[in-house]
Amino acid sequence: MIEDKYDLVVIESRTGGLCAAALAVKVGYKTLVIESRENVGGRFSTEEIDGFNIPTGTNLIHYSGWVPWVFKEVGAMLDLRESSEVFYSIRAKEYKIPLQHRVTALLELCNRVAPKVPNRL
User: Fold this and answer.
1) What is the C-alpha separation between 67 and 61, in angstroms, rounded?
2) Most buried among 7, 42, 51, 99, by the most CB within 10 A?
């Protein structure tokens, strides 16, 4: 039976699940990760197309965020590179975001492109 073999079962292999599993293994839990899709990693995975590795989603990680912390904690290598440009796609239109003050710029962009809601106060 599965409960006889594993201390922990993680049901999904996106970033959070994989990080949780890695941290559990580090402290000694016998861990099983179950994924229904072909690939693991969720938005942090790649797909090979014509010999090129294409990201399937997010490819921006903050140096001081929790993902680099988990990699360091479990002794895994993480190859981070500076980003030269950042774009957000909103309603199939791309918007370039400055590298400095990205969060503020993204919030201002969302306010600009969001549908106007009448003030009902």
Assistant:
1) 7
2) 42
Contact 66, 20 (CB under 8 A): no
Q: Give the predicted TM-score (pTM) of the model.
A: 0.63
CB atoms within 10 A of CB 28: 8
Distance CA(63)–CA(73), nearest Å, equals: 14
Interatomic CA distance for residues 30 and 28, integer angstroms = 6
User: H or E element: which one contains 19?
Assistant: helix 15-26
Average pLDDT of 47-51? 86
* pLDDT tens readout for residues 56-94: 776 677 778 888 999 999 999 988 877 777 777 777 788
Residue 42 and residue 35 in contact, taking contact as beta carbons nearer than 8 Å? no
